[in-house]
Amino acid sequence: MTASHYFASDHLKDGTQVTVRAISIDDRDGVLSAFDNLDRESVYTRFFTPKRELTEAELQQLTDVDNDRVVALVVALPCNDCADLVGGGRYCRTSENVAEIAFTTAERFRGRGVASLILEHLVRIARSNGILEFEADVLRDNTAMLSVFRNSGLKLTSESSAGVQNVRLTL
Q1: Cα–Cα distance, 126 to 102 (Å, whole number)
Q2: C-alpha count within 13 angstroms, C-beta hemisphere, residue 159
Q3: Which residue in 47, 99, 130, 149 could disulfide with 91, CB within 3.0 to 4.6 Å?
Q4: pLDDT tens digits for 13-46?
Q5: CB contact set of 159 (below 8 Å; sequence gap of 6+)
Q6: Are 154 and 171 in contact (CB under 8 A)?
Q7: CB-based contacts of 136: which residues, under 8 Å, 6+ apart?
Q8: Residues 6 or more apart from 127 whose CB is under 8 A from it?
Q9: pLDDT by residue (tens digit) across 110-164?
């Protein structure tokens, strides 16, 4: 499965039609706009630190991925000539068979299954690329993300340390 050209029509759990596709360098404005609309809590749970804006280097890292070691997907609303991104997720290969995952969902789309949808698509791609396990560090207070992992249908193990859950999902 070619991650760089990944594209799928899908829907959120409330029936909203969306597109799940590979991120591209052309998504810079959409990523900036999505980041600007995140509340402080979302920024903190994703980056583990307060952050007011993305640096140029961070924006480059988010949108210009190699699609071998890093696979990044966005969820977009179908629209003409716009980049209404409602969420994003990625994995980064940390060893031959293991990858770290992370997600972000726009505030107005929380609770509608964006992260779960991205996880499903990332699992499909990862399995085809020989990845056997996902891992993620999640703040213990991020109950929504922990719930996504618990309800994924994947075998889950976790350890807690200093307010952070290290979650491992067997693919």
Answers
A1: 14
A2: 2
A3: 99
A4: 999 999 999 998 888 877 777 666 666 666 555 5
A5: 165, 166
A6: yes
A7: 100, 101, 102, 145, 149, 166, 167, 169
A8: 171
A9: 899 999 999 999 999 999 999 999 999 988 888 999 999 999 999 999 999 988 8
Name the β-bridge partners of 156: 169
Structure tokens at 3: 């991650």
- Residue tagged 């889950």 (tokens): 156
Provide the β-strand partners of residue 168.
135, 157
| Alpha carbons 5 and 93: distance in angstroms, whole number | 19
Angle between helices 143-150 and 114-128 (to 10 degrees): 50
The CA angle 105-133-155, to the nearest 5 degrees, is 85
